[in-house]
């Protein structure tokens, strides 16, 4: 494996333990770096041919065993090992490319299409008439029954009646399955297209998830799954609000998830909630609150055994400290984040952190240096983030490139900033993110005094076109 990786320029830290996990079926879907190595080793084969699961089936909180065996702590079934291989190799890079060495260009965005066209594992043949109905139910919402139908694992014949309990009846395992599937689908769509086209449509599944909780269940294990799933769904919907500039709505959803974590005694959900709350507070101009939330998240996360989660929370703390102008404190938190990240992936890493690789680490570092006014260092980190980001996470690629454009503009390099801004405008054809657009608007304001430069003028003219702002 390591030799095959070197042949194609991938660095994978493959050892006997990794091979054992593959052979035992614990790694249901390898990460993108290992994907390239497997496909290089077995020309003409797909990962499905090798026995791996579709990536879309493991993007959510995590697949669980069919039998619900109570755990010693809560009586809930223990979380199964993560379905994805979180290891990114020593450099953490994910560099999936096409056969010609280029990154794929996204197709036109269809907000009603829940199928991820860049998932190399997803089974494409399906009953299209049936799946169209399911997609419309998910994206449009409506009555409680239609909202419940929006939680269906897409591609099944119909939403099981047992998932929508009648008055006086309790929710069952089918409802918990549906909530978890809704989390996976929302995250997959957000990764590729951003939040603006999704937020309003995603609130109906959230209401239904809490309605299922209110209905109660017959088993503690199912109740725990519903609490965890509803909390993760609240965080996913809150993130859609956050990324689309609805900070008040995002704060409400995050608080709801935090309350759910406290009710169910779920430290993983609690740490996730505080992580998102810290990020929101920083973006909303409340850096001191961002620091406190990140520190609270770290206290919850210490019980989980995930160095990567502690690393991300340290970066959240660093962002808040940078917003306060505390350079020494921010540098200390950044160093701690790097050290923790270097400990490597673990089985305890939450599945929602699949986005957190070397690219995200560099991107968050760039944001810290930008807040501290160190534009050259911020630009270097942002450029690295954009270069390393896997194309599946199109919204993050747009975000890092927008950060790069802004850092270059404020650092006195208008031509390079305009070129980066043009790349972001290309990505905004498929990505709907108010946060990215707002960053680009700020860059345009900084560049206006340089309009006499041809590259800057071209960017500003294109940025101002109605097609972009519509």
UniProtKB/TrEMBL annotation:
Gene3D superfamilies: Tetratricopeptide repeat domain. SUPFAM superfamilies: TPR-like. It comes from the Bacteria. InterPro entries: TPR-like_helical_dom_sf. Residues 57-130 are annotated as: Disordered. Residues 109-130 have a biased composition (Basic and acidic residues). This is Transcriptional regulator.
């Amino acid at each position: 494996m390591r030799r095959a990786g070197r042949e194609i320029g991938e660095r994978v830290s493959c050892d006997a333990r990794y091979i054992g996990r593959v052979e035992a079926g614990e790694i249901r879907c390898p990460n993108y770096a290992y994907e390239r190595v497997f496909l290089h080793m077995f020309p003409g084969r797909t990962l499905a041919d090798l026995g791996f699961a579709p990536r879309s089936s493991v993007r959510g909180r995590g697949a669980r065993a069919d039998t619900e065996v109570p755990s010693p702590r809560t009586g809930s079934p223990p979380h199964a090992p993560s379905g994805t291989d979180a290891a990114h190799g020593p450099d953490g890079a994910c560099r999936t490319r096409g056969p010609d060495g280029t990154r794929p260009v996204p197709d036109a965005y269809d907000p009603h299409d829940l199928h991820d066209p860049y998932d190399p594992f997803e089974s494409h043949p399906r009953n299209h008439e049936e799946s169209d109905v399911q997609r419309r139910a998910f994206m449009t919402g409506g009555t409680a029954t239609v909202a419940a139908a929006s939680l269906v694992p897409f591609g099944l014949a119909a939403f099981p009646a047992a998932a929508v309990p009648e008055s006086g009846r309790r929710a069952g395992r089918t409802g918990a399955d549906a909530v978890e599937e809704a989390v996976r689908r929302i995250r997959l769509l957000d990764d590729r297209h951003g939040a603006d086209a999704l937020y309003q449509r995603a609130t109906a599944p959230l209401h239904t998830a809490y309605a299922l909780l209110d209905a109660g269940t017959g088993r503690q294990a199912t109740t725990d799954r519903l609490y965890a799933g509803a909390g993760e769904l609240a965080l996913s919907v809150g993130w859609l609000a956050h990324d689309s500039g609805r900070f008040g709505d995002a704060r409400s959803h995050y608080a709801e998830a935090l309350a759910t974590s406290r009710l169910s005694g779920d430290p993983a959900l609690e740490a996730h909630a505080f992580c998102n709350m810290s990020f929101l507070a920083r973006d909303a101009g409340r850096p001191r609150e961002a620091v406190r939330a990140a520190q609270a998240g770290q206290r919850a996360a210490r019980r989980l055994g995930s160095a990567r989660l502690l690393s991300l929370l340290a970066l959240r703390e660093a962002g808040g400290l940078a917003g306060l102008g505390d350079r020494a404190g921010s540098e200390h938190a950044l160093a701690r984040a790097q050290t923790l990240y270097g400990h490597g992936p673990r089985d305890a890493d939450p599945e929602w952190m699949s986005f957190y690789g070397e690219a995200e680490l560099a991107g968050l570092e760039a944001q810290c240096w930008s807040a501290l006014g160190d534009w050259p260092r911020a630009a270097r980190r942002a450029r690295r983030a954009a270069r390393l980001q896997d194309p599946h996470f199109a919204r993050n690629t747009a975000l890092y490139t927008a950060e790069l454009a802004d850092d270059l503009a404020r650092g006195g390099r208008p031509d390079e900033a305009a070129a980066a801004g043009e790349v972001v405008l290309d990505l905004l054809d498929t990505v709907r993110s108010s946060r990215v657009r707002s960053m680009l608007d700020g860059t345009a304001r900084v560049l206006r005094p340089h309009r006499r430069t041809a590259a800057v003028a071209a960017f500003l003219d294109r940025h101002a076109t109605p097609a972009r702002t519509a």
